[in-house]
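Hey, I'm writing a tutorial for new members on how sequence and structure tokens pair up, and I'd like a real worked example in the thread rather than a made-up one. If someone can provide the structure for the chain below, I'll link this post from the tutorial.
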Amino acid sequence: MNVTSIEPILDIKNLCVQYETHVVLTNINLTVREGEVVVIIGPSGGGKSSLLRSVNLIQPIASGQIFLAGRELTAPGNDINKVRQSVGMVFQQYHLFPHLTILGNLTLAPRRVLKLSRHDAEEQAMALLARVGLAEKADKYPAQLSGGQQQRVAIARALMMRPALMLFDEVTSALDPELVGEVLCVMKDLAKSGMTMLVVTHEMEFAREVGDRLIFIADGSVVEQGLPRDMLASPRHARTRQFLARTNAA
């Protein structure tokens, strides 16, 4: 466990999300401490992705509050772009700019938003590409890379903004099975380095090995949470047992 702080870096209070009359999340309360890896599992449509998108202010909320390092992200008048500088997010799809090289994809936002010089941005980008094992791909274009390589680039791009918190939304679900491991390896390395992470995934072995806490969300609510090994071996709630039985069968 890499938890380094008693005070939560992320504090979600009574979060509710809905689309017109359809309730997506109901009274979600969640704290994440600095250095903690919290893994979220649950059935499709249960609200997992909506929770992550709410933290990054992509998903409008109906009510509730979200705090990052003591600052309320959901306060009226907040600069959404500044919030997103502190919260990195990696999606199921890579969302790389096809007309830019890999180096260009990584340096665009830091140069425009953080006002880094080209030299400093490229130096930082090359260090991160080396970290994810892709330094030799800096001059390639996204279409020249495999899905796993593109996802590793997406992770490096998010890290370029030096976020306090990283969100991962089922980042391996679109990959061929043989490419999943290389992305999970990068995520494991981030966890070991002390990065605070909120991870939505169906990779139960990753949850067991890397997660400090496991949360099961279904029907818009937190059904159960606890230590990953304990929950995966002996879930307390019938809904959790049902989900894990189906997952193991698949």
